[in-house]
Amino acid sequence: MSSSAIDIKKSLLDAVLAGLLALIVFGPIVGVVLSGYNFNLQFDRVGWLVGAVVIGRFCLSLFLQSPRGERMLYRFETAGSGVHVLPPDHKSRLLWIVPILIVLAVIFPFFASKYLLTVVILGLIYVLLGLGLNIVVGLAGLLDLGFVAFYAIGAYGLALGYQHLGLGFWSVLPLAALMAACAGMLLGFPVLRMHGDYLAIVTLGFGEIIRLVLNNWLSFTGGPNGMSVPSPTFLGLEFGRRAKDGGVPFHEFFGIAYNPNIKFLFIYVVLFLVVMLVLYIKHRLTRMPVGRAWEALREDEIACRSMGLNHVLVKLSAFMIGASTAGLAGVFFASYQGFVNPSSFTFFESALILAIVVLGGMGSTVGVVIAAFVLTVAPELLRSFADYRVLLFGVLMVLMMIWRPRGLIRISRSGFTPRKGVAP
Amino acid sequence: MDGIFLQQLINGLTLGSVYGLIAIGYTMVYGIIGMINFAHGEVYMISAYLSAIALALLAFFGLESFPLLILGTLLFTVCVTGVYGWVIERIAYKPLRNSTRLAPLISAIGMSLILQNYVQISQGARQQGIPTLLDGSFRFAIGDGFVQLTYTKVFILVAAFAGMAALTYIIQRTRLGRMCRATQQDRKMASILGINTDRVISYVFVIGAAMAALAGVLITMNYGTFDFYAGFIIGIKAFTAAVLGGIGSLPGAMLGGIILGVAEAQFSGMVNTDYKDVFSFSLLVLILIFRPQGLLGRPQVAKV
Prior knowledge:
The structure holds 2 protein chains of 2 kinds. By secondary structure, chain A is mainly α. Chain A folds into 2 domains: 8-77, no CATH class; 95-234 and 266-410, ABC transporter involved in vitamin B12 uptake, BtuC. Helix content of chain A is 67%, strand content 4%. Chain A contains 17 helices and 6 strands. In chain A, helix 1 runs antiparallel to helix 2, helix 6 (147-165) packs across helix 14 and helix 15 crosses helix 16 (365-381). Chain B has a single domain (2-290), classed as ABC transporter involved in vitamin B12 uptake, BtuC (Orthogonal Bundle), CATH 1.10.3470. Chain B is built from 11 helices and 4 strands, in the order H-H-H-H-E-E-E-H-H-H-H-E-H-H-H. Chain B has a two-stranded antiparallel sheet. Chain B has a two-stranded antiparallel ribbon with strand order 2-3. In chain B, a hairpin with a 2-residue loop joins strand 2 and strand 3 (145-150). Classes of the chains: A mainly alpha, B mainly alpha.
């Protein structure tokens, strides 16, 4: 922080070097497009990219030499860590937002079109997935790259349960959560004893195993063609125009006009209730001993173990709760789509959920809810950028890790007032 | 049975030697900064594209003879992929040296998504391919069938072992290799002794990328086709190889690669081709559970 003068020569040199590297990197891949055993040249694209890199690097270099940039650089090197502790009697000013959101959510379906309803349902499903993964990655610090496997277990649980056992939406909903938790336990128990990074790769492998089995076991799962999923029912009443087997459909029973959206409305209502429940449970869990243990274990495993925490059990509980949340989300996804096939459960889906957690802030609930909506609803609105969606997620993940590894919204927690008469 | 067994043994050895080459990238990076470089599979994928581009360019300039063609392709691919390795490290990992434990991992996943999508956008999503470069094969009659050893496979085996030998020489005998080993053993001590550890880490990424580039050229020669998604599966397999051999150990990576390649080829020859990826992943899970330090690795001791 000594030299305050801006060294333009250095910036120019940086820019030229970056441009040279960009030319080497982008030149062949972007400039020479393969077609068959031949190629077309597209050097204009390379020119644009290299120009952007040169100008960007020059501006960055200038900025980092300015006082403000130096301050930012300094902040990077001493990355602030941990949880932001608020004063004991702190009342959040955002408390009034929660009732408003609930009211909005209640009146929303009366005005929404079917398309909007489906988009919001998808958003809520990702909120559920994000909350589940947030417990595993954000709170417990276990990087799970095969989270989509538990999602698949929930979705296929409904499809297979209907086909082979005749189970419906309501009986599968708790069962799927249980099954996913059991799968999480089976996978987690041996794996969680190991070094953290291995967990990432094992879960990645597990996710792929599940997908490959679903894809290849034609006689049981229908392979790539997928399986159909029954519509949910309400107290045995179906939502179709006519009920099967001489039953009474929902709209006739209540004497209302038939509405083709009613299935989605129903899913929306149940999903919303489940999301609220999960939010509440998570809110309580972070304040319970087990939640504290998750976060402590994330910050320093060795210290925790020497304090007598059973790290396997603590991690396993996080892993199972996260998995069961994904199982729930899977059931909703399956009944929302009406059918399931393995292509919904690729690694990209895991990466998307991870992006939600990363963007929302590790461990922050509000952040995850917002991020889930932004990352699932935004692509629906920006269809023309669909090709660049994955690229954007990747850039987002790298930038977030460099800029704010703990997410946009910092986790904060109110402190405790020391009681009088007790030694501090 | 013998015919199939031998044929799959040959296939497995070629495949495994290439897995070994990619596994070197994982194992060296893990050894030096203790991080799984998820983007490494994508580096391999990029090198496959680069090799096809180099071949197309060289053929366009009228180069026909096989030795020149393959030499030019190798040189071009290894150099450019090395630059990729350096740039990836500089952008996605270097700023995170002192960050939280999960940050580099997540950044690596982001990088891998970026590379995949970048290639998909610039080269299109369809499968690409190269023509057969080396025709012909040796045939041995065994029992009532025969075993075929194509010249391509012979070339792959020779090239892969030459690459591994060159790397072993660099690591064991040169100044750069000594710096790498010192940094791997104790980064802080190495930097006290005047080694620019940041630069050594960059070199390690370049070496890993160069090895992946060699693998990319060889696999592309063998199979002829590839797409932007090719790095994912091969990346996990190579990682399995690195873990099998003991992560952090160079001979382990090569050994693990060959064992995995042979086991996988035998499995798909004897049991089922559809489930060969499931077999490899299950192997990974089992190794990690029962022998996480691998065949040649040392058990990790957590130091406070």
